[in-house]
Amino acid sequence: MAAEFVHLHNHTEYSLLDGACRLIDDKGNPSELFNLIAKEYKMPALAITDHGNMYGAMEFYWAAKQSGIKPIIGCEVYVAPKSRFDKKNINRTTEDNVNYHHLTLLAKDFEGYQNLMRIVSAGFTEGFYYKPRVDKEVLKKYGRGLIALSGCLAGEVASALLKGNNEKAQNAAIEYRDIFSKDNFYIEIMDNGLENQKKIIPNLIELSKNTAIPLVATNDCHFLKKEDAEIHDILLCIGTGKMLNDTKRLHFDSDLFYYRSAEDMIKTFPLCLKR
Question: Start and end of every Polymerase/histidinol phosphatase N-terminal domain (predicted)?
Fold first, then answer.
């Protein structure tokens, strides 16, 4: 039996100036992404989780269906630490003062898709402050039909662990579990070769054991193939108004944010396969 894995945290061209994966090619056909996932990797499904928006949802759905794989519509939302209506200039230098945390949401049915649209819309119409932010009040109101993953290093759980606050991380995980229900919240674990990721992987595994919240492995894909890392880097420069030779600019310290094979992901995270 072939190894089976589904990429659940992925960014397309609609993660503007951050995602380097097209959905439709120049001829109006499903892009190379779907050829890779459906034909080469033979994965049964694929998710879209662009930053704060669902601009690519319809294109993605069509292309996935055309390619014979199950489309999973999602979004990586920005969650305000308190109220989405709080738009003061927050100082990021202290532990509790951040403008938002990341959270990965996936629609598991049509009700979830409708609720995801409501959540994303609230981010733009009510919570926009540099980013389209939502809050836990919105998540509680529209959480039915959704699966939530705890997010990347900018997620609330991971951020707390990076600061050495294991209790805060556990409380955040339990709160999200209560919002989405015990069967619909997962602790997200990644290893793109970043030092901070490797630092908290043991803590995430321990947190999963202590709370009985299952783990899910993702790769936070931002580009199609490993060699596309340079293209993604150029996009970041355009988005931030910086030059490639600027050593202080925003950049990814890894070229592993691409669509890795099932075998590669399972080799990296055998514990997630077992669980």
Answer: 6-81
Tell me if the pTM is above 0.90. yes
Q: Which residue type, as a one-letter code, is found at position 148?
A: A
Domain range for 266: 32-274
Say how many domains are in the chain: 1
Q: What element of type H or E holds 78? A: strand 70-79
Cα three-residue angle 169-174-176, rounded to 5 degrees:
95
DSSP string, 227-261: GGHHHHHHHHHHHHT--TT-TTS---S-S--B---
Does residue 150 contact residue 134 with C-beta atoms inside 8 Å? no
Instruction: Name the one residue in this structure whose structure tokens are 């399972």.
Output: 266
Per residue in 36-68, pLDDT (tens digit) is: 999 999 999 999 999 999 999 999 999 999 999
CATH (domain of 41): 3.20.20.140
Tens digit of each residue's pLDDT (9 = 90 or more) over 124-157? 999 999 999 999 999 999 999 999 999 999 999 9
Has residue 6 been placed in a domain? no
